[in-house]
Amino acid sequence: MMQNVHLAPETDEDDLYSGYNDYNPIYDIEELENDAAFQQAVRTSHGRRPPITAKISSTAVTRPIATGYGSKTSLASSIGRPMTGAIQDGVTRPMTAVRAAGFTKAALRGSAFDPLGQSRGPAPPLEAKKKDSPEEKIKQLEKEVNELVEESCIASSCGDLKLVLFNLASQYSVNEMYAEALNTYQVIVKNKMFSNAGILKMNMGNIYLKQRNYSKAIKFYRMALDQVPSVNKQMRIKIMQNIGVTFIQAGQYSDAINSYEHIMSMAPNLKAGYNLTICYFAVGDREKMKKAFQKLIAVPLEIDEDKYISPSDDPHTNLVTEAIKNDHLRQMERERKAMAEKYIMTSAKLIAPVIETSFAAGYDWCVEVVKASQYVELANDLEINKAVTYLRQKDYNQAVEILKMLEKKDSRVKSAAATNLSALYYMGKDFAQASSYADIAVNSDRYNPAALTNKGNTVFANGDYEKAAEFYKEALRNDSSCTEALYNIGLTYEKLNRLDEALDCFLKLHAILRNSAEVLYQIASIYELMENPSQAIEWLMQVVSVVPTDPQVLSKLGELYDHEGDKSQAFQYYYESYRYFPCNIEVIEWLGAYYIDTQFWEKAIQYFERASLIQPTQVKWQLMVASCFRRSGNYQKALDTYKDTHRKFPENVECLRFLVRLCTDLGLKDAQEYARKLKRLEKMKEIREQRIKSGRDGSGGSRGKREGSASGDSGQNYSASSKGERLSARLRALPGTNEPYESSSNKEIDASYVDPLGPQIERPKTAAKKRIDEDDFADEELGDDLLPE
């Protein structure tokens, strides 16, 4: 028992470094050559791990061994158990002693040893962070705030308290805490050691300008101007521009003119020249307006267009030219040129009608000045604006003459002029000329969406809806923001009865034009055609939220609610429609019928009396008034009304019948006289009917065909064309309508629905070229909002 007990050797407790030279002889590699077991393992397969592809087919495991003749023999395990690492039933058997890295129990047959997972390929790229997400914005703001806080802390630790106050004042101003910002700036400015007090006073002037305290703003701007040294020329010019803007907002145009004249003499720029022209226009000085316009045109753009044109075939130079054609500098130059053209066009359109005796002479002067400047290409645009002005004055001949002159210009101007001419002729329903000029516009500029839209309109007017849709689609391919083409293709699909595609177009347009009453109405109209009145009502409610006083939309809502059987809601919207437009005969008829249904005869009378005023030649309204008096028990008033109606319409049989009945009931002597008249009229009516019947015998078949085709065309559900029939049927179905006065009219009321938003329901929009639309003085060019009549 004690043979397994080993006693620790006695060592010197004071020897702290004992045992460091002792080592295990297993790790002695110098004696491996003399180790028989190790040498046997190296020379033979003793101790090797078998391949993992071995498979157990029975109780004994076999492993194919290749022979020298190419055949294979199998060696079975001597004990008949599965080999270590073999695969059985698709599952790898684990090693008995060692579990290798990367081993999985469910490894498939043939899988290689891949501890690092290299066979899976490269890792997927990291998901990019969304810069516009709320989290990123919050993090960015937090970072900026922390930077400002750190900057302020560093400045405070260095004793630079003015920088801390400046940051604080800037944040007060950004957060519209103007009083606190002014107090903080004042603390800095009072420090005599601060050398940039002029800039801070300009900031204080900006705050007073935002508060509309113009006198104090001008005071601080002038103080800043006095404290900014003359060597800082750009800063002084900016301060003077702020002074001029403040004078304009205060209505002191003479003082503003002095500031801008000084700027134009020292360092002319586009904004100063534009504002100077506006100031002279405000004071009405014609000659000074011309001079200011000339100064504006003379401002140099400082843009070198030649550097973007490669002068040689040198590949290196061409590469450099291509690289700078759309860099940030080029984009800034384009923006500067666009701003200059905007200011010049707006100024010309503003002063042209007033600088000469007529606007035509004023435009001619502006065109001549522009042609002599670096903006020569704007002269043609001014000519187009001149034509537009003629159109606004209803002088179509002059407008057409100018536009036809522009047809001889370059392709861009020719396309614009032909587009406007096409729109003019389309509005005049001269579709042949409209189509001709639309072809010219398209041939001059195939990528002009307005020209393609107008060409589609002319094809649409001829009834070729499929071809019109192709032109609209091409216009959308050239300019996806062409809302006229998208609107018109929706109308085209509606004509083709492709309601789902039409609805999709208008829903896309609704995403672009959120508050367009036209688009909302079209969506409601399509839902109505799709026999979905609930959705139609919902979209019409949105139309009412945009145009709450449109009487036709309100009457349409009333019609839909009436069709759904909700009389109270129908009455509400019909009554609102009547309030805004008390001359719609359909609305008046429905309201009168509603009050008869509810037996409020007195209220029905006022609507039928108004109907008789609107249609004085229709006898039915006066008969309805008399009928309401009679049903309410006011027989004398009813008798007087019937007599008055008989005087106006002496050949009306129904009126005479009621006169005979009333006079008989009241015991009046006039009954016999009215009875003789009635008998004579009935006899004449019989003779007339016999003549008509004899005349119809020869053409009965063809007439029957026409009537059958007409009835077949009017079978659309919820159609507005059947509205008059429903209303008249309601009147005939009222209590007592079997009496003859209810069917006196031989003609039904025309109840065809009129689009509340204009004629674009029936025809597509007309698109034309647009030039100026970015400013208050700019006038829209012809055709952007033109709708065919």
TrEMBL record:
SUPFAM superfamilies: HCP-like, TPR-like. TPR repeats lie at residues 198-231, 237-270, 449-482, 483-516, 517-550, 551-584, 585-618. One of its GO terms (molecular function) is kinesin binding. Residues 774-789 have a biased composition (Acidic residues). Residues 762-773 have a biased composition (Basic and acidic residues). Residues 112-134, 689-789 are annotated as: Disordered. Residues 713-722 have a biased composition (Polar residues). InterPro entries: Sel1-like, TPR-like_helical_dom_sf, TPR_rpt. This is Intraflagellar transport 88. It comes from Macaca nemestrina (Pig-tailed macaque). The lineage of its organism: Eukaryota, Metazoa, Chordata, Craniata, Vertebrata. The gene is IFT88.
